[in-house]
Amino acid sequence: MTAAISKARRGDPVIILEKTVQLGKKILASGNGRCNLLNEQLDSSFYNPEARPLVNSVFSRFGRNEILNFFSELGLHYYSQDGRIFPFTNQAASVLKVLEMEIRRLGVKVEYGFDCLSIRKTQNGFSLQAADGRQQTGQNLILTGGGCTYPAFGSDGSGYKLAASLGHRIIKPIPSTVPLVVKDPICHLLQGQRIIARAQSRIRDKVGTPVDGELLFTKYGLSGSLILDISQEISLAINRLNIKDVSLGIDLIPFIEPKQMETELLKRRKTGLSPEEMLTGILPNKLCVAFKQLFEKDNPAKAAAKLKNWRFEVSGTRGWNEAEFTAGGIDTGEIDIQTLESKLVKGLYLAGEVLDVNGVRGGYNLGWAWASGYIAGLN
Ligand SMILES: Cc1cc2nc3c(=O)[nH]c(=O)nc-3n(C[C@H](O)[C@H](O)[C@H](O)COP(=O)(O)OP(=O)(O)OC[C@H]3O[C@@H](n4cnc5c(N)ncnc54)[C@H](O)[C@@H]3O)c2cc1C
C-alpha cells in the first residue's frame, strides 16, 4: 500500500493485485489489534545483520520522522508507549483505513482475488497470471507478497516462489517471534498461567542476554511476550542450524535477589509452613502447588537456586500459524540498496517482509514494510 501511494503520488498509473478480498489483513491483526506501527528508535541494529546495509539505505531516506509525517498527513494520530508507537484510537483498523482512503483518493485501482501464480518477464515489462485465469501486464512490478506467517491473512510464501521463478535466491524462511515447544510436564500442568519472569537462552555453550517479560505456560510449552522476544535466536538455531542442544533458564522470581530469596524461604520454613504454602504471595497459587515438591525434597537454599534458574529443554518452535514474522526470504544482496530494484531483473522491485529483512518485536517489521514500500514506489 505504501508502494502504491508513493508511486501514484508521482502521477504514475498503479494497480494493486491482491490475493484476498481485502488489503492489509495482517495490519488488522498486528499488535493484538492495536497495531504497533513503528518504534521511536528506528535503526538497522534492530534487524538481522545481513540486511543492515539495505535497511540503513532505506531509513536514511524514509526513517522514523518521514514515516510519522506520512501517517500524520493521512490524518492518523498516534502515541508512544515505552518507545512503541500505536494509533491513538488503539485500533489497527484506523491505520488500515487511512491507507485505504489515500489509495482511493489517488485513484489507485485494486484488483481483489488476484492470486498471482506466475510472473513472466516480457519485452515491455511483466505479465502476471492469476489462479482463476485472469492476466495483468505492467511495465514495472513491485513484489510485496509478504512472508509465510498466518497464511489465512494472505501471505503463504508464494512471494518467495514467484521471486525464485525469476532467478532470486531465497534464504530458507523460518518462523521467528514464535512460541516454543518444551517437553516439561510442568508446562501442561500450568497451562494458561501467566507470570512476569526473566529468561536467558543457552544454545550449546552460548548463553544469551537476559530478557524480562510475561511468560505464559501452554499445553505444548511456553509462550507470552517474554518467549516471543527471546525466540528469534532460538528458532534460528533449531530450524536453520539444526542445533539440538537448546535450553532456556527461567528466573521465575526475578523481583527478589537470590540471597534475599534464600533468607525468605528459610524464615518461612521456620514458621512451619507446609510445602504448598512456601511460595504463597510470591507466585500465583497454581505455581505454589506445582513447585511444592521442591520443598519436600530440597532445602530452601537449593529450592531458591532452582526457582531462580529453572531449566527448560527446548525441542522445537510452533509453526507458521503462530509466528509473527518470517526470518529469511529474498537475498538482500541481490537488491539495489538505493532503489530496491532487483539486480537480476530490470523493472522488478521488492519490498517488505518478502525480503530477508526481519526486525525485533516492537514495530520494526511494519516500520520496514512502510519504508521499503514507499522507497520502492519512488523509483
Ligand atoms: C499476528 C501478527 C501480529 C503482528 N504485529 C506486528 C506489530 O504490532 N508490529 C510490527 O511491526 N509488525 C507486526 N507484525 C508483522 C507485520 O504485520 C508484517 O511484517 C507486515 O505486515 C509485512 O508487510 P508486507 O506488506 O511485507 O506483507 P503482508 O502484510 O503479509 O502483505 C502481503 C500482501 O500480499 C498478498 N499476497 C501474498 N501472496 C500473493 C499472491 N501470490 N498474489 C497476490 N497477492 C498476494 C497478501 O494477501 C497480503 O495482502 C505482526 C504479524 C502478525 C502475523
TrEMBL record:
Keyword vocabulary terms for this entry: FAD, Flavoprotein
Keyword Flavoprotein applies: yes
Needed cofactors: FAD
Start and end residues of each RsdA/BaiN/AoA(So)-like insert domain: 175-324
One Pfam family this sequence matches: HI0933_like
Residues of the RsdA/BaiN/AoA(So)-like Rossmann fold-like domain: 1-378
Domain of life: Bacteria
Name this polypeptide is given: NAD(FAD)-utilizing dehydrogenase
Organism: Dehalococcoides mccartyi (strain ATCC BAA-2266 / KCTC 15142 / 195) (Dehalococcoides ethenogenes (strain 195))
